[in-house]
Amino acid sequence: MKRYVLFMMCVVLSGLWSCQTLGPVGSPGPSAPPPPAYTCDRKDVTPVRAKTQYSDDYGTMMTSDAAALSTPARNYRWGIKNSSTPLSMAYFTFYVRPEGRYRYFRSTIYIDRGVKAPMTFFIRNNDRKGDVLKSVTVYPGQTVDVDVEIRGIKRLNVWSELRINHDKAEKIVFGEPEFYNCR
To answer: Is the CATH number of domain 39-182 3.30.70.1150?
Structure first.
């Protein structure tokens, strides 16, 4: 009997500890690691806004519609978002083309709270089979800044991991994507 009581106390305490580390119910989950600090005193910035810089692979569109790009954390002036609302599965992939002229790519990623599980986004060199330059996990309702070094790269593939049962995504946003160089 003592062993059973001791075992149950351990189970309850470990359950309480795990609930405390995850935060309250409905919270966005653990915070993402901070982006690398690519510090520049001055930057040459090129917004990714032209059709020559972007192409859809699945479920995305470039827009400057303020309502479509508004999130709880911020409103974006331009960006890449899911093309249909709701997206029937939480999956997202597109290309941007720095054409080897820029050293860095940055954007802000947001996924809505309706997605059931965290989404992992991969930024790869050239295509889906290219080297992974960065992977970022975003929790439902969370906004994460992304900054990745892309020196010499002609095309970036940005895609999310495809998982079953993510549910429907009302809004996935890559806010104000841009290429930049330090001067």
So the answer is: no
Torsion angle, alpha carbons of 107, 111, 112, 113, to 10: -130
Residues 132-138: contacts with CB under 8 Å, at least 24 apart: 136/32, 136/109, 137/32, 138/32, 138/109, 138/110, 138/111
pTM exceeds 0.90, yes or no: no
Handedness of CA 134, 123, 106, 163 (dihedral sign): negative
What's the CA gap between 181 and 183, in Å, rounded? 6
Mean pLDDT of 153-162: 92
Higher pLDDT, 121 or 87: 121
Rounded to whole angstroms, the Cα distance separating 133 from 158 reads 10
CA distance 48 to 139: 25
Half-sphere exposure of 46 (CA within 13 A, CB side): 18
